[in-house]
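User: Please work through this fold.
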Amino acid sequence: MSVWEIDFYRRPFQDEAGNFLWEWVVCDAAGLWREQAFCPQPAASADWVLAQLQQLVQQHGSPIAIRVFRPQTLNLLEIAARQLSFELQPTRHTP
């Protein structure tokens, strides 16, 4: 079990339909693995975040905690993490 660092934020990139893309970045605190995905603006929601977290749990097991530094990310993660009983650790420090 490890601590995950997660960020999810809107980038200035757009997809073919003109939707802004949100970038999902996850790594473990030790830096042993990193995952990245893009999500179109209309799909960026707590449900999308929950689906990503469930997929990560299948691949890497459950984290002991999730650290997040961006307030916008924290709001979406709170909803999804509550459903999975994950501890969130808001922080202003990044590795």
